[in-house]
Design goal:
The structure is a homotetramer.
Chain A lengths: L10 E4 L1 H4 L5 H15 L6 E4 L48 H9 L3 E7 L2 E2 H5 L11 H4 E2 L10 E4 L3 H17 L3 E5 L15 H14 L4 E4 L9 H7 L2 E3 L8 H14 L8 E3 L7 E2 L7 E2 L4 H14 L3 E3 L8 H7 L2 H4 L7 E7 L3 E7 L6 E7 L5 E6 H5 L15 E2 L4 E2 L5 E6 L4 E6 L1
Parallel strand pairs in A: 1-2, 1-13, 2-3, 3-7, 7-8, 8-9, 9-10
Antiparallel strand pairs in A: 4-6, 5-6, 11-12, 14-15, 15-16, 16-21, 17-20, 18-19, 18-21
Helix pairs in contact in A: 6-7, 9-10
């Protein structure tokens, strides 16, 4: 039933881009408090703790490894990972993430965690029992199913005992009050192009565990690129899935996202959100050992925000929120832009070539419309599009011309266009037009 | 705007499976007359003349070639292919297919033709002018773009003059009264897996030509398998596209179709019909030189009809209609089955494994529902499915339990099930349940 | 320098096809004794103990696993696997395979063992030291480099400490008197066609360790198919490499070997032996739980032996030797056939099509020649080939007609051919002609 | 028997890099005369006329097409292409290339031509007879086998009549006195990685035609990259085959050649020469409309010459010879360098990593040796190699230390090394050491 929730496009913050493996409870809380105060009114609500919250000594071998091989992890007697108390002090005594989740809920926000696909290697190596079964982890763990980049887990076999293991961790997360899980190493497993979605049975097991647990935990799959060929499966069993590799603040990656959005445009709908990955805005990278400010130009940032919103991607902020500057904050408080994320819009790419791209979106119930124009070239250019050409991208009538005026969203200026919208756009920049 | 028509799933007859390249005007007419009398009341309406209607001496080198290399084709002074008068006598004097189309329209049916992608090689070799331009065919034809299996055409370059060529043939077809074109060598071009949809610009050109011509000509693309990765493009520019290689009456091919339908299940909607290919029922193959009767068992035939209908594939009969036996005719006159093709149903695969498959469909406006159970194994088995499991495949509520009784469609017998439907199914067989 | 030994094509026996993981010291010895008595005079000399000689309780979970996940293995304090004393009693007290090797050497034979690529997982999990270093196994083991089918090892990183690990095991094997190692999971790693030889640095490390150890240990790589694209690398660093998947007694697999031999024909030379895999003759499969007699017909067995020999593949018997029948034994005692394996012949495929295949071989120093004719079809046929056509496959002159008579090897009958050789061949059968 | 000639590595000049499709008889002759005078003493002997010598109006549509689609070609009544008399005036009256070949032979040189795989499209379109048969070209031409980049030809079917066509053109070339054919669109056909050597039957047909014609015409295959997987086939049927795409004067392409040479190093032998493509030295590109001087630095030019020679690639000059400067000429007159091309050396890559590469070569009969050191990095560095490490790349003994002194070839300075050779090398530069 996961498809019955996440009916609006998920928006929130994720600890990875700034903290890597080293985020602490205090870090999470200060970001949550900032979000509650400055961003929640605009729709931002998820606070997500990313990878290796269970690991000790993270970053202590940074020069050699992002993830320490055969490192020490916090785990219960059933082989379920627990928060590392060095980083999450409130988790001691078996409390897990509950105290932190409670605080975040008290702020009116939702709480999410990163989950590595599979069962801890340590659980298998120590022959720990699976909760509610007489089977031990070595019989559930598949020793040949390992991540190519993270050393912590083994894949879970497609068996009753395997399902029980997934049930046991989802039940634990539900008991903590988790609202969102970003499951990693599952959406595009291995670099083998011939079986890039080779662990789909684990997606199904997670889906079933969530259905049983009674809590509407949003299921987000990483990393990408997801295989369009398998779109029906993602749609049936997950709420979000990454359509790209890790996305960072480089123009070629942003340009490439237009390809990905083109391919996935027919697969966005309430409860199913192809995911363009986190927004690398503001201050980034401290946990990786070299902090920096987003390398995108302001125009590129507007392009990114416009594309993510009109396509319907989830929005997950990578920035350290407490260090946001006014410019970046303004991107995150643009109501008319973020209105595209309310879960009611249909959107389509109208045209794309090497120099430009046009998207349109419409709320079929209200007739509210958007048109986005992107300058993909390295030179400024004037781009315009007949509204009728945008209308042709939708079923008859739903994007029809109606009375009312177009307004350019970024500049908040009304337009006196008749049949077309357009304007002068700087290199890598965007315009977004709106009409009620 | 091609997406604004073909709002019901296209159903009809195609000359290929029985006649190969050799169908004549008389053959077409007798099949059309049969259809008008026996099948039209059940929704069958298209009469489609398949490949090489323009070619002389077809089948004269049958032992060596299906398509004679460098053979003689009928063509006008602008390089547009015309019906070969040896096979279509009414076409003489420049009448083209108009007289035949008129007769078919007079029967209350629609008329379709097969179109090879591109411009005739002969047009390029003779430097013929493109209608309405001062450009000759040798500048429009791409000499490196040839079919891997048919020797008649060159691909058309993506240029203004190329568009004019496509405009000129579509205008001609519209003037004849053509309602449907099955464009070949365009959906999966070349056997190269890395560019299996390499001629998409010609699809776009055909789409634009149809938009301009003013006649709602259904655009059907062949051969398959279409690339799921490009689903957005097929959906935007075409009405039907083949999701498989040529389909014939062999069980492994039918079994494989369950794979293809699984992958394409989210892409079926009014105006957009992923196509499982023609139904090789009844008498087949005369034009290929070895006439036979459909090799599928009766149970396999029911499975085929059930899958095509609940998935929402177009139905194109390959049989010689005038030779249909009663059993086969009964498959084509089953109103409750064919009701699934009315363009209002949403359908989903509920589950599939090696032994069985379940699909469900619902009309979200009326709540009318179907559940199909398939026995994919070689042994008889009893299969049943909780209705709630089918309901879970759809958005909340639209497949909910309501009052009323389930009926098994093939046997036309009411069922006294409570929460499940099911029954005993022979090997390769199917049951189809319906509830208003 | 591994290329300076294995100058004759290796011939011997391997425990896998009959014993799987369960061969014991007694089993090995009785096969060695048989070989010394009946086969050694014909060139057979290697006795190879195959997979999991270090593992306890092998076959105890036969219904679920060929290799028990997270099972118990015998290992020294430096993470080096030792023979399991349950199966190899003479290995107790740190003796390792030395006592067994000594006995085999005393029979005038050579001793080989199977080696899984990498370092034991248990060594990494227990942070054992690498001999001669201050590094522990967890820093040498690559947690993402695992076999897709065997759970025992991790790949070794390309580092100085990694080289030390490989040095430490090769030194141990040399101290035992090992003459041959069949290293597994290294020749075609992973099923990913884009990096099928992805662990070549471990081949290089093994090669360097052998060079340093001072003992001419033959380096054999498994499994296949090796990538022809990497032929230079196999040739430079190894003595044998598998050119196919595991080979068993099925005709399609034997037929497919003609493809593989065609591709590898230019890569056979003293010290470098592309390997067609073990000969599944005689009694097989006891260790797998279902003992059987070779499924090849006598003609197919002759075809196999003829192809392996004229191509120049190593010959490794899979049969339980003590159960050999007279017919099978006669294949292994055919001197004129086995003479092809003496390391002096150049061989080439002369022609191949669906129905037949011809190979020729010549000793460029002596002019001694062979011609093999294979009937690949399912019908008997007469096949002949002009000797001049065979000669054309070699550099000028070396296969020239000389005085002397041709003899058919399998029937040991002289031929009165003039310019051609040939004869009637049963389906799947072979003739082999020889001339001094 | 093509393997019995081309026993020395072919060296010569090719018209393409400077003239593209537009070379004339006068151009060819002035280059031949220059070669006879300045280069012939150093081993240069082939003069090769490259693509479209049969075509009229070449370069007249340069802005749109390199090869004019459906252009006019000179051809005889049997569909055999003849030199275009506009460019080769001596060919008139059916003389073909004989007068030009005679002049080149009179200079003591050899004459070569470019040949597009297949039969002219015009021959098929005009149903011309195949010489010596009652079959017409339309039955020999395969209409689906076309080049992806040149519009002139159709592939030839694998039939007796197809063989007769190839016999007829090779007989014609032999009658003209052609010594070398560079057959194009045959070595790597199509961009499809799954059948990149899909026209191998045409290679076999050409080989057979050459065998029959009685003239030792060197068979060179283009374009590349040839598939290493098919090395046995190239070796059996051709004398040279391109191992790369078209090579031009860009450092990344030169760097990439080290990859290619590594892979092909075991396939170089008399009569079989993997081909690194033409040397883009001196003045280039006039026929393409933008003449320039080789973009390689002097060090890069030395690296190119050193690699081509020690690997054993054919050397085909792309420069306009009459415009050679002294520096470039000195590269082509270095006797000690070019001595590597005499067909007696065995060579091996000794090591390669990102920064450097070492090759060694030895004449096994005389013991004469070379060692080449390449600086692949962008910084100067000192590189040295123990001679024993080079020796280990060969069979035992053949590269052993012997008395005598090493000399650096480019600087012609003796070295006083003991066990190693080496020196300081500029970025992208090379040293070449020689010892008798």
């Amino acid at each position: 039933m996961s498809k019955y929730f996440a009916l609006q496009t998920p928006m929130g913050w994720n600890s990875y881009d700034y903290y890597d493996t080293n985020v602490t409870e205090a870090d999470v809380l200060k970001n949550a408090e900032y979000m509650a105060k400055h961003l929640k009114p605009y729709g931002w609500e998820y606070v997500v703790v990313d990878i290796q919250w269970y690991a000790y000594n993270t970053a202590s071998m940074r020069d050699k490894f992002q993830y320490i091989p055969f490192g020490r992890n916090e785990m219960d007697e059933f082989g379920r990972l627990l928060p590392c108390p060095d980083k999450f002090p409130s988790s001691v005594g078996g409390a897990g993430f509950k105290p932190l989740a409670d605080k975040i809920h008290a702020l009116g926000l939702k709480f999410g965690i990163h989950v590595m696909r599979g069962i801890p290697r340590l659980a298998a190596h120590h022959y720990l029992p699976i909760l509610g079964t007489d089977v031990t982890a070595d019989m559930v763990a598949d020793p040949s199913s390992v991540s190519e980049w993270n050393p912590d887990m083994y894949g879970v076999r497609n068996s009753d005992a395997g399902q029980k293991y997934y049930d046991s961790i989802i039940d634990l997360y539900a008991s903590w009050g988790v609202d969102f899980i970003k499951v990693d190493d599952i959406c595009s497993t291995g670099f083998n192009p011939h079986r890039c979605y080779g662990r789909k049975h684990e997606v199904e097991m997670l889906h079933r565990a969530i259905e049983k647990c009674g809590r509407p935990i949003v299921l987000s799959l990483s990393p990408g690129p997801a295989a369009v060929e398998e779109s029906w499966h993602y749609s049936k069993f997950a709420n979000m899935w990454r359509i790209t590799d890790d996305f960072w603040d480089k123009w070629p990656d942003l340009l490439h996202m237009f390809d990905r959005c083109e391919k996935w445009q027919d697969h966005v709908r309430p409860g199913n959100w192809p995911d363009c990955d986190m927004l690398p805005l503001g201050r980034l990278g401290k946990g990786f050992g070299h902090e920096w400010t987003c390398n995108f130009t302001p125009d590129e940032q507007k392009t990114m925000m416009t594309l993510w919103c009109i396509f319907g991607s989830p929005l997950m902020l990578g920035a350290e929120l407490t260090l946001l500057d006014d410019w970046t904050l303004s991107l995150l408080q643009n109501e008319k832009l973020l209105h595209l994320e309310n879960g009611t819009f249909l959107s389509r790419q109208v045209l794309r070539n090497r120099g430009k791209c046009v998207w349109a979106a419409v709320d079929p119930k209200t007739g509210e419309r958007y048109i986005a124009l992107f300058n993909l070239s390295d030179q400024p250019q004037t781009i315009s599009i007949p509204v009728s050409e945008c209308a042709a991208a939708f079923s008859e009538g739903i994007f029809d011309a109606k009375a009312g005026e177009w307004e350019e969203v970024w500049s908040a200026t009304p337009c006196d266009f008749a049949d077309s919208v357009g304007g002068h756009i700087p290199p890598h920049g965007a315009l977004l037009f709106h009409k009620n």
